[in-house]
Amino acid sequence: MDDSSKHVVITGSTRGIGYGLAEAFLALGGTLTISGRGETSTHQAAAKLAERFGTQRVISVPCDVNDPAAVQELWDASEKRFNKVDIWINNAGWSGEQGMVWERPSAEVDSIVSTNITGSIYGAQTAMRGMLKQGFGAIYNMQGMGADGRKHAGLTVYGTTKYAVHYFTQSLALEAKGTPVVIGGLRPGMIVTDMIFERYKDRPADWERAKPIFNIIAERVETVAPWLAGRMLTNKRNGAILSYSSSPKLLWRFISQPFVRRDLFS
């Protein structure tokens, strides 16, 4: 089975890195199931991609990843349309508003934890059962800030969930050892998405102070997504963490910053 025939399901793929990955896989010849919590946004994202890549290669299935029945429906619809699921990406996630942990409302905490952790578990459970039945497949969990243990004041709840997702990925890979299913993690690094802008929407002065740092450490979706998609198509190693950013790369960015001006927000 060649790479161009791969069918990919991505949760939380109506915008940001999820949508970028969808574009990248389609550009590489694959087929896609777009999924998000909102019915309108999910169908609109799929329609936009279908205009470029063809209606036969993209379907849209709205899904609340906190609902295991909805996650199963996402798998069933994808399998029915394309006869298989080669790659399942648990990307749906939310950071919440930036602020000290004791300031965050309980409803927001519950939503971050359930979406990022429980949603990834439900997605992996569903995909694992389906892939064991079909005899092949790969599951990737999106790991963000905090997955490597680094801390960021104001994003404690989000970072805690991503550290948990890293543990879950490692443990799931251990359980999947000896099966035909590959488990992996994705670390895109700091990406310029709506999530960043939303954190600073009511704090313009803080945004102006933060923007120079983002210009050093962040990257655009259209740069990172194709890199990750290509690595997922070729990776065969169970337990692999596909990381776009690295310490040497970030160090070089800081060293070269006076000579190489980057502007990611123009």
Describe this structure in words.
- The chain has 266 residues and is α/β, with parallel strands linked by helices.
- The chain has a single domain (3-193, 221-245), classed as NAD(P)-binding Rossmann-like Domain (Rossmann fold).
- It has nine helices and nine strands.
- The protein has helices at residues 16-27, 39-53, 68-82, 106-134, 156-176, 194-199, 204-217, 221-234, 247-256, and strands at residues 7-10, 31-34, 58-60, 87-90, 137-142, 181-187, 191-192, 219-220, 240-243.
- The strands form two sheets. The chain has a seven-stranded parallel β-sheet with strand order 3-2-1-4-5-6-9, with helices on both faces. A two-stranded parallel sheet has the order 7-8.
- Helix 2 links the parallel strand 2 (31-34) and strand 3.
